[in-house]
Amino acid sequence: MIYTCTLNPSVDYVVHVDELRVGELNRAVKTLTFPGGKGINVSRVLKRLGVDSTALGFIGGFTGEFIEKELGKENIVCDFVKIPGNTRINVKLKAGLETEINGQGPTVEAEHEVQLLEKIRSLTENDIIVLAGSVPSSMSSDVYEKICDEAKKRNAKVVVDTSGPALKALLAHKPFFAKPNHKELAELFGTSFQAKEEIIAYGRRLVEMGVENVIVSMAGDGAFYFNRAVTLFAKAPQGTVKNSVGAGDSMVAGFLAAYTSGKSLEEAFAYSVASGSATAFSEDLCTKDRVEQLVHEVNVMRF
Ligand SMILES: Nc1ncnc2c1ncn2[C@@H]1O[C@H](COP(=O)(O)OP(=O)(O)OP(=O)(O)O)[C@@H](O)[C@H]1O
Ligand SMILES: O=P(O)(O)OC[C@@]1(O)O[C@H](CO)[C@@H](O)[C@@H]1O
């Protein structure tokens, strides 16, 4: 079974305006509301790609109820720890450019962390757990490491899609799969990239640190895949971007869906890139049909 863990889920409130006038009244031309948070997005895309998962993490209040109801409509199994306070609302403002304002999220107490860790203790060697998204400011920054330790003790595979100190700390635990974008990779090593060769060098360093599979995404410029044996590159398919929120999460789901169904590495990587782009070209997350159309446009090259 695949488990996703979203410590700080969100209701994503997508607001379209023709033109943003700062300091004035703006009227939306369209608004959309989605259950969000990186792990939840991975669960939603996995389901669309025909793979079941269980969504773990913390939810609370009317926004938490919305998330659980929406995931229920999509037949996604939820096993959240319920907390007081409202799950955050993240504003995704579309006014030509995409601007995001992510909420802080409710307080998670020590007792809630204990309840989550208890759920992690039921994982087995047949399971994969995806740790995705930011750590709530009320939690200690090593919570992902604690979850990772519990999962690894039980030989479950750990997948990491986070950034900053949480990503840095988790790499030492040699996860099965990590998907930083190129900016997160640069931040990890306190550098900035001017050329693709630098992305390759630093991506390979993650493999040397013990990560089994690494995908470094580069938005419209495609992505690299690294493991001990190969470096692969794929350009992103061309299309009209409608919403890049969740594109990275869709890549994680696409890779896992293909990998767990026994596809080759090249195929899994192509499927991952196609899933990211299919989401970028959709208002909500990708559909399986769109992924399978786009995968034919993804050419995987070996370096
Ligand atoms: N403009 C685009 N055109 C085509 N494909 C895109 C575009 N933006 C993103 N993608 C696809 O989505 C993948 C992931 O994008 P990106 O690098 O932006 O991830 P991310 O920063 O983790 O995203 P997020 O945090 O919003 O989920 C890319 O590798 C690509 O396949
Ligand atoms: O604040 P975090 O946890 O870093 O990111 C949360 C978030 O921006 O990530 C998802 C897209 O990847 C959205 O659904 C959600 O709003």
What's the Cα radius of gyration? 18 Å
**CATH top level?**
Alpha Beta
- Number of helices, counting only DSSP H or I runs of 4 residues or more: 10
H/E element sequence: EEEHEHEEEEHEHEHEHHEEEHHHE
Structural class category: alpha/beta
Distance between the termini: 33 Å
Q: What is the CATH topology descriptor? A: UDP-N-acetylmuramoyl-L-alanine:D-glutamate ligase
Largest sheet: 11 strands, mixed
In terms of per-residue confidence, which ranges show pLDDT below 50 for 5 or more consecutive residues? none
InterPro entries: 1-PFruKinase, Carboh/pur_kinase_PfkB_CS, PfkB_dom, Ribokinase-like, Tagatose/fructose_Pkinase
Pfam family, one: PfkB
Function: Catalyzes the ATP-dependent phosphorylation of fructose-l-phosphate to fructose-l,6-bisphosphate.
Pathway: Carbohydrate metabolism; D-tagatose 6-phosphate degradation; D-glyceraldehyde 3-phosphate and glycerone phosphate from D-tagatose 6-phosphate: step 1/2
Description:
The protein has 303 residues and is of the alpha/beta class. The chain has a single domain (2-302), classed as Ribokinase (UDP-N-acetylmuramoyl-L-alanine:D-glutamate ligase), CATH 3.40.1190.20. Helices cover 37% and strands 23% of the residues. It is built from ten helices and 15 strands. The chain has helices at 38-48, 61-73, 110-120, 143-153, 164-171, 182-188, 196-208, 247-260, 265-280, 288-294; strands spanning 2-6, 10-16, 30-36, 53-59, 77-78, 81-82, 88-95, 97-101, 128-132, 157-161, 177-178, 213-217, 223-226, 231-234, 300-302. Strands 1, 4, 5, 6, 9, 10, 11, 12, 13, 14 and 15 form an eleven-stranded mixed sheet that branches. The protein has a four-stranded mixed sheet with strand order 3-2-7-8. A hairpin with a 1-residue loop joins strand 7 and strand 8. The longest helix has 16 residues, at 265-280. The chain is globular. The two termini are 33 Å apart. 45% of the residues are buried. The mean pLDDT is 96. Residues 181, 217-220, 222-223, 236, 241, 244-249, 251, 273, 276-277, 280 line the site of adenosine-5'-triphosphate (ATP).
